[in-house]
Amino acid sequence: MVKIIRLRKGLDINLAGKAPRQKTAIGKAEEYALTPDTFVGVTPKVVVKEGERVKAGSALFVNKNCPQVSFASPVSGTVTAIERGERRKVLSVKVKADDQQEFVEFGVKEVSQLSADQVVESLLQAGLFGFINQLPYAVSTTPDTHPKGIFVSALRDKPLACDFEYEVKGQEDDFVAGLIALSKIAPTHLGLGIQPDLQAELFKRGIEKYVTVTVYDGKCPAGNVGVQVNHTDPVNKGEVVWMVEPTAVIFFGRLFRTGRVNMMRTIAIAGSEITEPAYADVMTGTPLTAILDRKMKHEDGVRIIQGNPLTGSQATKNDFLGAHTSTICVLPEGDHADELLGWIMPRWGQFSASRSYFSWLQNLWCFGKKKQYNLDARVKGGERHMIMSGEYDRVLPMDIYGEYLIKAIIAGDIDKMEQLGIYEVSPEDFALAEFVDSSKLELQKIVRNGLDMLRKENA
Fold first, then answer.
1. Which residues pair with 279 in a beta bridge?
2. Max CA separation in the chain (angstroms)
3. Ordered DSSP codes for 30-70
4. What digits encode the pLDDT tens for the residues 335-385?
């Protein structure tokens, strides 16, 4: 029997430019790259040299603090560059792809017959274990942690986010195999939204025998793993849960079913500055130049985002598709916006969570369609003093005091941070609170700094 959890807090932002369920073709790129920054908490140590030949599945770098955890090349070819930044920080490892791809053969395995140690060892050998994150700290995990549970959220409800129900079509067997493999390690929880087609396909394959399926009925951020953990099995001090992005589960399933590392993924190319939003099948590490070629309305005055507009990171066309990126968004920057009388006008086309504009009247359903907003990247105001107004609580469906936790992090009070539930949160859990925050604080950055501080203190 499927458990249903209804969430009342949250906020849906209906942005213009959402990708319809259709695909566009993306040509092969000459060069691909794996970027360590996409694996949060990992200090990379490069294990290849420029000019060296690698296969798809060969290790490019390892976690310096846990050398067992390696990170596999998405393609076979020749290592062309190891780019470094300040203090010799590794920015990316580039590989010029072969015309004919070669793979490291890890062997086909029957996941139902594997033990927990065999699953972990297989993921470590293939360079895929680093795709697993953990709470607390919201970082890439290591095999010496012992999770009390593993959480996978197949509900993506942030604005312009890639629809996993569409992404997984034709790959259900890989997804189920990956879930079964994870269930060998620890009790595994799968979070879904109201997705009848996906539920039907998964139950047809008997997934309920291996994982606990929970349906979350509510507004964004119901799809956040942190929210689902909070409502299902909260994390206390000394406990660990693993979090796996659903596309990574597909990668795991492909590994066991084919014996090869295949990081091909379906992403959404979306945003109001995209001429024809659509989905595309691309390899992890593909240059954004190849993905966005002739797809942008304008080259200047736009912001390219790896991820969704709430939690994604700003990028350029010279960057490469991140390991956890399922959406590429292009929005107007807003530098040249000229609004008569600014905020004082009773605007009809601006989104407001507090009903400051009359446009809230258009948020109601009209002729079967909900109003779409064409928002730009402006902050619209400077940082102000923090006001304890309950703004965060209205969009944070978690049993924590969000505003008090942020104040404790800013003050550097570790005892208060622990008492207020910092072990349960990720930066993305505060994305909506950051959006509605009248104080214009960078809440996700503050939470990230707090988690890093706590991690360093407990090391």
1. 23, 268
2. 68
3. SEEEE-GGGSTT--EEE---TT-EE-BT-EEEEETTEEEEE
4. 877 777 666 666 667 787 777 776 666 655 554 567 888 889 988 888 888
Q: Which residues contact 97 (CB under 8 A, 6 or more apart)?
A: 28, 29, 30, 31, 32, 75, 76, 77
* Amino acid letter, residue 5: I
Considering only CA atoms, which of 163, 416, 395, 423 is closest in space to residue 278?
A: 163
Residue carrying the six token digits 């965060």: 392
Which of 111, 410, 399 shows the shortest CA–CA distance to 253? 111
Task: Please report, as a single letter, which amino acid is at residue 198.
Answer: L
**Peptide bond just before 67 cis, omega within 30 deg:** no
> What phi and psi values does residue 381 have, to the nearest 5 degrees?
135, 160
Give the 3-state secondary structure of residue 399: coil
Q: Is the pTM of this model over 0.90?
A: yes
Q: Which two tokens stand for residue 26?
A: 């993306």
Angle between helices 196-204 and 172-183 (to 10 degrees): 70
The amino acid at residue 341 is L
Cα–Cα distance, 231 to 223 (Å, whole number): 12
Q: Which residues of 410-431 are buried (b: 16+ CB within 10 A; e: fewer)?
A: eeeebeebbebbbbbbbbbbbb
Determine the residue type at 49.
K
Contact 225, 216 (CB under 8 A): no
Token code pair at residue 93: 């490892």
SS3 (DSSP) at 110: coil
Q: Is the peptide bond before 196 cis (omega within 30 degrees of 0)?
A: no
Residue 452: Cβ within 10 Å count: 15
Cis peptide bond upstream of 221, omega within 30: yes
Q: Please report how many Cα atoms fall inside a 13 Å half-sphere around the Cα of residue 278, on the Cβ side.
A: 14
Name the 3-class secondary structure at 386: coil
* CA dihedral of 2, 7, 12, 17, whole degrees rounded to 10: -10
DSSP string, 184-226: TTS-EEEEE-S-HHHHHHHHHTTGGGTSEEEEEESSTTTT-HH
Residue range 64-118, pLDDT digits in tens: 999 999 999 999 999 999 999 999 999 999 999 999 999 999 999 999 999 999 9
Amino acid in position 361: L
SS3 content of the chain, % helix, strand, coil (to 5): 30, 25, 45
User: Under 8 Å CB-to-CB from 342, ≥6 apart: which residues?
Assistant: none
Phi and psi, residue 280, nearest 5°: -150, 145
- For the record, the structure tokens of 247 come out as 């596309």
